[in-house]
Automatic annotation (TrEMBL):
Name recorded for this polypeptide: aspartate-semialdehyde dehydrogenase
Enzyme class: oxidoreductase
Superkingdom to which the source organism belongs: Eukaryota
InterPro entries: Asp_semialdehyde_DH, Asp_semialdehyde_DH_beta, NAD(P)-bd_dom_sf, Semialdehyde_DH_NAD-bd, Semialdhyde_DH_dimer_dom
One of the GO BP terms on file: lysine biosynthetic process via diaminopimelate
EC number: 1.2.1.11
Originating organism: Nelumbo nucifera
Length: 381
């Protein structure tokens, strides 16, 4: 049995305090037939996890274990204050190392989730060392030289990058809300071509990291006890409230989170003309984002055909029970790989079956971050 990661970090998950460390002895989350465990393998790539003590860094480890990712060794990297702490992963003890310019010697694949400034500084250093970097920050997403990849959506964007070629490279993970949206919208886009997309997001605390999750849990207790809520991460009360996403507001009135949806969709679909508008909202949910998506198509697409297309889509599950009013919820997709889609219905404001409304939920930490990055790494094998 694979041992659980042991560390002193904790974060709240689904409304209760949960070990911040990864429990790699849990059962596999993938559905389907039995798969041979790979894990430590002499001819596998050498890995580095940058930001291993963060929520996404810990989820990297969980996903690597869940998917039996083959590796010959792993280097656990974090800030100076975490260096020296011990961590156990898949029956082996590791010492967390401080991230330095020498951290990537001999590393084949480096999974980054330590913030944009760290990626901008150390990403190119890792590439120069011959590593293929899969970066979870926004640092390189709109760089035309760097592929922006969702494996189920545009795998060809990274077809030119080969493991073992001796050449380092950068690959960017899209923003979490973009990934969750396009997992559902892309299969429909391929069938009828989306010409306009309107997205409203309902984003969980997990999108702002472990500290935000802790603050939501703390505020919930404080409000229920009649105390003034602690507002360190956000400038206003989060518990029992919702507000416009905390990303900076730009001169056009959109915030950075909304513009990520616009720009990243165009790049991933390789369509600079697709019209996208978004409104992004923080809601007091611990983990997993929800999104309401309105689509306008170039060709007619009825809801029954759309439902059939989505049933066949990789990484998508249909939750669309009108009779019992049961549709996707953040709670039900938390810690799940698939993006759930429901509320599939014709847009009554558009004539001739040229519009659809759908509602999606996906785990921001998992498919919106760690899982997508590991899937990219899997395509390099």
């Amino acid at each position: 049995m694979r041992a659980a990661v042991v560390s002193q970090y904790h974060y709240p998950l689904n409304g209760r305090a949960t070990s911040f460390a990864v429990n790699t002895s849990t059962s596999r989350r993938r559905s389907g037939a039995f798969t041979v465990r790979m894990g430590l393998k002499e001819d596998g790539p050498s890995l580095a996890i940058v930001g291993v003590t963060g929520a996404v860094g810990q989820e990297f480890l969980q996903v690597l274990s869940d998917r039996d990712f083959p590796y010959r060794n792993i280097r656990m990297l974090a800030s100076k204050r975490s260096a020296g702490k011990k961590l156990t992963f898949e029956d082996k003890d590791y010492v967390i190392e401080e991230l330095t310019e020498d951290s990537f010697n001999g590393i084949d694949i480096a999974l980054f989730s330590a913030g944009g400034s760290i990626s901008k500084k150390f990403g190119p250093i890792a590439v120069d060392s011959g590593s293929i970097v899969v970066d979870n920050s926004s640092a390189f997403r709109m760089d035309e030289r760097v592929p922006l990849v969702i494996p189920e959506v545009n795998p060809d964007a990274m077809a030119h990058i080969k493991l073992g070629s001796g050449k380092g490279a950068l690959i960017s993970n899209p923003n979490c809300s973009t990934i969750i949206c396009l997992m559902a919208a892309t299969p429909l886009h391929h069938h009828a071509k989306v010409i306009r997309m309107v997205v409203s997001t309902y984003q969980a605390a997990s999108g702002a990291g472990a500290a935000a999750m802790e603050e939501l849990e703390l505020q919930t207790r404080e409000v229920l006890e009649g105390k003034r809520p602690t507002c360190n991460i956000f400038k206003q009360q989060y518990a029992f409230n919702l507000f416009s996403h905390n990303a900076p507001i730009l001169s056009n009135g959109y915030n950075e989170e909304e513009m990520k949806m616009v720009k990243e969709t165009r790049k991933i679909w390789n369509d600079p003309n697709v019209k996208v508008t978004a409104t992004c909202i923080r809601v007091p949910v611990m983990r997993a984002h929800a999104e309401s998506i309105n689509l306008q198509f170039e060709k007619p697409l009825d809801e029954d055909t759309a439902r059939d297309i989505l049933k066949r889509a990789a990484g998508v599950v249909i939750v669309d029970d009108r009779a019992s009013n049961h549709f996707p919820t953040p709670l039900e997709v938390s810690n799940k790989d698939d993006v759930a889609v429901g509320r599939i219905r014709q847009d009554l404001s558009q004539d001739g079956n040229y519009g659809l409304d759908i509602f999606v939920c996906g785990d921001q930490v998992r498919k919106g971050a760690a899982l997508n990055a590991v899937q990219i790494a899997e395509m390099l094998l």
